[in-house]
Design a protein that fits this description.
The structure is a single chain. The protein is α/β, with parallel strands linked by helices. It is built from twelve helices and twelve strands. The strands form three sheets. A five-stranded mixed beta sheet has the order 5-4-3-6-7, sandwiched between helices. Strands 10-9-8-11-12 form a five-stranded mixed beta sheet, sandwiched between helices. Helix 8 crosses helix 10. The longest helix is centred in the C-terminal third of the chain and has 28 residues.
Length: 400
Amino acid sequence: MTISAAGRASVGSVLDFAWRAGVFTATDAMNETALTRSTVIEAIDTLAGIGLLRELPNARSAGEYRGGRPARRFEIADDLGVVIGIDSGLSHLAVTVADPFDAVLAHRRIEVPRTASAGARRRTLGGLLDEALHDAGAERASVLAVCAGVAAPVNRDGISPPHPEGFWARTNPELADLLSDWAPVVEVKNDASLAAAAEGASGAATGCQDYVALLAGERFGAGVVVDGHLLHGAHGGVGEGVVFDHVVGVGTAYGLRYAIEREVRGAVAAGDLDRSGAVGALADGKDIDPRTVLEFAASGDADAALIADRVGETVAIIIGVLGSTFDPSRVIVCGAIADSIEPVLAAARRSLPSQLHLPAPELFASTLGADVVSLGAVATARDAARTRAVPALVQERLQA
């Protein structure tokens, strides 16, 4: 099919509108795009002819007829393909297959050894991708875009820099190379950046132009949005948590799970907690479940409240550093621990003003749970499908 440059531009404008509109008529598209009626109709017919739009029953058939000639109604075809979001964490791998609109078709999540080699992770992820696609009833050829979130800085080519202990190479085992044949568009991004994408799309940062999504479970890492733009850096290192190794009052990039355990054991050793109490007794175990301590704090346990206050002071220092550096209006604490974190955030809110000369940002606990990175990966893959993969598909079909 031969089409002029102006025709391609009008087709692109109508396609962009169609993603946002749902069901629409030519009049709807004309009003939104400022194109003439004849140009809009020609673009719609072109997109319908190559299978990107489908025509619905007209207004009379749909029971919406008001008199006059019933309008033709259209929507984006629902069989364009699928997108994939991947979360490659320290101790887990997750794969989500979704449609380009709003439905999740399949989700698989497994635990992996923290010391698993890069090769083992690649093999495991390859199998998980095949299984999730099978669950979704989709073929590999139907994948429009893939986005993977990794617990590592990532440059614009999807490559992580070397880490002194090899950690980044395990969470990002050359995923850009592994996934290169899976879709026309493949992106590998830092996990905190994808948490920020998720919070902006459907979480506590919806409508906010300046915010930080703080992943805080295993290690601290921040996804930073300033003036509506997600910050990246030369190596994808904006918000990398290693800075907290050097901050007095924090001293480590390890996250809230370890901060809570450290405070419990330290308080027992100093005699600030009774070892026979509900919280003090936890120090006798090999591991301390942070959720248990936070649930005790929420229920009014004085010992747990002491721990929450101390951890909250640490969180205030962390947010003070982020606030002084990036000046966000909101900070959202994300991850599996977020649903229990309110006692810590209450303490942080009390302490935070002393950490800043700027107005203190609002603090929120994320409502997106342990899948926040997966949600951000899917949202990013959908955006890539809509803005890159599907327009390329249009060009391909027009040239066929």
